[in-house]
Amino acid sequence: MTALEDVVTEGPVSIRDVAALAGVSVGTVSNVLNRPDIVAEPTRDRVLAAIKSLGFIRNESARQLRAGRSRTIGLVVLDVANPFFTDVARGVEDEASESGLAVILCNSDDQKAKESRYLEVLEEHRVQGILITPVSGADQRLASVQRRGTPVVLVDSRSPSRGQCSVSVDDVLGGDLAVTHLLEEGHRQIAFVGGPLSIRQVSDRRDGALAALERAGRDGADLQVIETPALNVAAGQQAGAVIAGLPAGARPTAVFCANDLLALGVLQEMTTHRIRVPDGIAIVGYDDVVFASAAAVPLSSVRQPRHQLGRAAAQLLIEEALGGGTHRHRQVVFEPELVVRASSQGGPRRPRRARRPAEDETPAPAPESAPEPTPVPVPGEAAGAVASEVTG
């Protein structure tokens, strides 16, 4: 048969329009859309030609209502402008795409009201499941979503219970790595810049910094904490202005920032006040986003496997959505690495792995109730990333 010519129609094209142009029943068009293998090839070609000619777009919402679930998953992040979440989202999208799923990206702005509204919208769209870096205090909201039948996986956040999967990074260890490095460089006046401290990742990184000080025989009160209202460059600049305004004798000689955006803001402010980095003040960030190495003074940073975080979280969500009653919740925890650059020491260094206890040290015992983490393979290509897993 000859190809159908393009047909101009007024308003949305319906499945009945396609059937009429192709000379088949509505049921046959439905079969071509949903079960093409059962339709004879000549008939299938005629229907596809009519679809192309009319510019027909299937009603996915109606299909979702019949099927019960859409071919999408939701991803809710705290700040879509943060390059960390951009890289996580790419990992999620890569894994979802391989499974024939699309990703709906939502930005909560670390606001409970926005997060709640997005959760409602995603449930209304019958997504396969929801990946989320939750706002503080979201436990009950997420538990309600799960009770209504939508799987939830926490991203860059540990699950408060064994009732859901999570993928996170050991941020306490990351903070420890950063401040241990600064102590080894001879710094004694160290500041921590980050906030709000209600964000679990921020408080964990501060706790790691305190742990490094205490292990070195220092009082935790020696850490000067400058809490910021946000985790962005502007907040880093504000903190940097506070630091630069201190008398030289009271000014910290090193700063550990809760993320690279803050670190960049501090670095910019030091440049404005003609305080040399690292000679006048050393700076270590967190995340190791792409611009960290490209800053005016390349930033030392605690590296997180961002792309792998996204892929691993999406993989867990897809497994749960398709696994039915056989799925077992898992908590996957990645180890961070310290990448030393010019902002804290002259010349680039290779990534440093997690600190291992010296021979005369006794590692702190794990709580008796906690199962022993076991190494697990994780998707993604970042070399050197290590993960452990607890199965609930």
Description:
The chain is α/β, with parallel strands linked by helices. The chain has three domains: 15-58, Orthogonal Bundle (434 Repressor (Amino-terminal Domain)); 68-169 and 306-334 and 371-391, Rossmann fold (3-Layer(aba) Sandwich); 171-303, Response regulator (Rossmann fold, 3-Layer(aba) Sandwich). It is 38% helix and 16% strand. The chain contains twelve helices and 14 strands. It has helices spanning 15-22, 26-34, 41-54, 60-67, 83-98, 112-124, 139-147, 171-184, 200-215, 233-244, 260-272, 306-323; strands at residues 72-77, 102-107, 130-132, 152-155, 165-169, 190-194, 224-227, 254-257, 282-287, 300-303, 330-335, 337-339, 374-375, 386-391. Strands 2-1-3-4-5-11-14-13 form an eight-stranded mixed sheet, with helices on both faces. It has a six-stranded mixed sheet with strand order 7-6-8-9-10-12, sandwiched between helices. Helix 11 (260-272) links the parallel strand 8 (254-257) and strand 9 (282-287). Helix 1 packs across helix 2. It starts with 14 loop residues before the first helix and ends with a strand.
